[in-house]
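Worked example 4.2. Below are the chains of a multi-component assembly; read each line carefully before continuing.
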Amino acid sequence: MPDDFEPRIVAFFCNWCTYLAADLAGTSRIKYLPNAEVVRVMCSGRVDVQFVLKAFAKGADGVLIGGCHPGDCHYQEGNYKALRRYRLLRRLLRQMGIEDERLRLEWISAAEGDRVRVVIDEMVATLKRLGPLRKAEEERAHLTEVA
Amino acid sequence: MPNPYGYFPGCSLKGTGVAYEESLLALFQLLDLPLAELDDWNCCGATSYMCIDECSAFSLAARNLALAHKAGHRELLAPCSACYLVLRKTQDYAERYPGIAAHNGHLAICRAIRVRHPLEVLYTDLGPERIRKKLVRHWRGGRVACYYGCQMVRPYAEADRDCDPVRMDELLGAVGVPTVDYSLKTKCCGGSLTGTTHSVGLQLTEILLNEAARKGAQAIATVCPLCQYNLDAYQSEMRRASGKRPDMPILYFTQILGWALGGDLASLGFRRAISGRKTIEQWFTKDRVEKEAYVR
Amino acid sequence: MSDRNGAVRIGVYTCHCGANIAATVDVKALAEFAALLPNVVLSRDYKYMCSSPGQDLIRQDIRDHQLNRIVVASCSPHLHEHTFRTALKVGGLNPFYFHMVNIREQASWVHENKAQATRKAKDLVCAAVRRVAFHQPLERGRVAIHPDVLVVGGGIAGIHAALTLANAGKHVFLVEREATIGGHMAKFDKTFPTLDCAACILTPKMSAVRSHPNITLWTYSEVTKVDGYVGNYKVTVLRHPRYVDEDLCSGCLECLEACVCKQAKVPDDFNLGLSKRKPIYIPFPQAVPQVPVVDPETCIQFKSGKCKTTCIAACGDRHAINLRAEAKVEQIEVGTAILATGFQTFDARRTPYYGFGKYPNVYTALEVERLVNASGPTAGEVVLRDGRLPRTVGIVHCVGSRDENTHRWCSRVCCMYSLKLAHLIKERTGAEVFNFYIDMRTPGKGFEEFYQKLLNERVHFIRGRVAEVTDWVFDASEEGKLVIRVEDTLAGFVRRIPVDMVVLATGLEPRADAPEVRRLFNISCASEGFFLERHPKLAPVNTFTDGIFLAGCCQAPKDIPDTVAQAGAAAAEALALIDAGYVETEPNTAHVMEEQCCGCKTCISMCPYHAVSFIEDIHKSRVNEVLCKGCGTCVAACPSGAIRQNLFEDDEIFAEIEGVLSNA
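Applying the procedure described above to all three chains together yields the following structure tokens:
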């Protein structure tokens, strides 16, 4: 793969924990790689399977979902639902030939600013190793239909 | 017959610390814990080599871990506290600083082996209760100060707690040995200083002996051959220098346990002692005492 | 809303935020880029969008250019989303036609490469522009606020907050777990730096709480459940039985005298085990309420049923003692709650090298507070456990604070209370006192002067973190003493200081049950375990849950003046909400498109707030928008896509995803 490959990550961050953690990383001036772009949702439970598929279809090399730690969800249980959905989604993606490491679910609490850096930097390194998610045009079209 | 523990004696146990090896082997045999001495093991380098050339020191130590792995051992017992610390440290550094492993292939497989101290093995794998059940000889001796030394508990507080270790006290207590509250149980004995800066080393060991006596101990139990040697070998000098006469027996905990569990007297290394020989005779090897002491 | 021709007209504003954004993100290029995006009619950059002129720009442009959507690229929406939404409202546009792009906390402050940061900012702006086109006009609902307030915790923080609110005419439920209010402050003898008597300043407030008509005081009680939503909380309080009726008891305490256990044998918790109490007891003489408690674990009547119950006889015809009393469960409705649950002291057994629990003459600072207290176990005498007066005393600072092995934070009050104890000990015993410190932290009003006073009193100060407290004696002069070994970093050598008594200045830590309490109220804990405030500088008493406020050490270690100030601030915040009369709800709730609902009931079990119910006669689900908190879980779960969420519609999020990847 080309040396200048920069993976694109779409990150769905929950408003109360992970988004605040990313803000904390900002106020603490913690530096991390710029490959992830955040779409804010109120809860990780809002992350629809279609969002992830749309992201991959439109050119994302990786998708990151960030929620509160189990037991700490601002809405009680939304993160558990996200976890269940994520597990099934993984199986679906595998069947499409999308590697496990491209979809990542992380629990990051509002106080864990540095963890945002760790997760994003790690994911970028992994995706660089895996390479871009190049799909044949027809597969890409198929994904778009599904999404 | 359970899998044998890999056994790394280290140089001391074949030299000045031979009583440790003798009593360790006797004790483990009494407890049906098989030990398999590592074939072609080499010196671990101890604390000295680490100060001179860290990378080479790691390689030296790591070779032993590689040998253990090759022999199929998952656990390696290192009775000498310095060997224990060096091997454990090598493992830790190989994991945390991958750059070291890059120097030497041996280091890459360090993590597969678990380095353990016999004190911890006896406490965790057997436990004081099971040892108590195997008691043969009642304790007829005096009070003992359990001295852990510094390398076994710092910086890895895995063999026992770093600040206030108690496992040796508990094991000895299980066979009826009264121990004293010894505040200096992890204070350094001076290590190699008795050889290099003798007066300083002597002072450190004297502090340990005096405090043990002040707390009412008549003997000290150790886990490390260098501690044992430092405490044992120079008491006559102390006698001359400060007018005090310690003459306190410095025993290995394995000797005490081995005796209590009915081990053959000749196999426990009592004849190797330098100081406190009279006390040792009284407590352990005198015939009269032997006859009275049997439980069964 | 769109203009007369149905078109979307977007205005994009890029903020420089001084150099905060502009130094890393090329704001000019960003604004130029935005101008070319679809539906963007106008694109500006400006130094400080959140300022008045910045907001005026928006309002002016809405009017002059008939804008019907606004995007601002600046800081975190958590900071200024509200500000800009208000600007839209003032400019005559529905506030929800707005979307904010975070190019500061999540771009300029975290990326070093300017080109990459700018590229990322462009992607995010593109996403926002695409998203905002789908925004609909939304209205905030209004929910009436119940005027009653719950204060959890009856220490000085809870007491002050409760009194402030009660004086303002609001009804307050003050729930305290212990049998008396007063908290930790009730254990102190004197307070720094004025050496005011703690009881003298606290007990009047405690009495005021007791007699205030607007305060319902429930001691020996705890909150077990919180239901409802901001402005309308339904709280369940469990009231443990004291076995003495508060309304009938006159506080004469004759039952204590009369108890068949003539000798006190139970360790007294209030005195930290330094003295004993009887099975029937009062925590301390000035306890509020002045009503005894019977301890069922140690009372003979409870254990064997065969007691003469002389206590009941002594009570006579008041009949206040009822050993068959049962726990009561109360349900109350409040609009707001203030958490003032306080702290616990660091357990000194976690630093065994200081000898606490091993050597009898090693004390914690709180134990010494009880010793110096006139109503404590030794009637104010500072004596060792064997009755001797100490001749030398060592006070060890930073036990369990500023320590990687235990707690990293500074507990803020220990230097001052250590000085206070040094003074009191010296005054009472004439002993030689040593303080072993790392830094002397005396920042408050009168604090540095207090330190100078101690220096003038010839208290010794040794700068060094104590390594250990040992009974190992080096020579005869140390016999019978405890030796403090420390490196005197100013003198440059290791010292041994033999002392008779060691006092450990233990730090403050969050209460062990803080995680349970915070879940009850749906707030968060920070990484150290203290409750999380909304903003450490600008909103230290608010939480991320509207209507729940914090006061005192449960938020972070602090001294009494700061605690009282914070309690007043929390009360003021609660009052502001209550006096407004209503709270506006967020409009990002879910709703079911009934024609698309097939009645599969998947959504019903998804909602932890029971906001989604099934209407049998039409065989469809329906969302109660008042109960809905807007998480969106049911929205994602619905297989038919029949449930939609305001402000987080599928279309809106798809647009964002496409925008973010538009240059992929």
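Take a moment to check your reading of the output against the notes. Chain B has 16 helices and seven strands. The longest strand of chain B covers residues 219-222.
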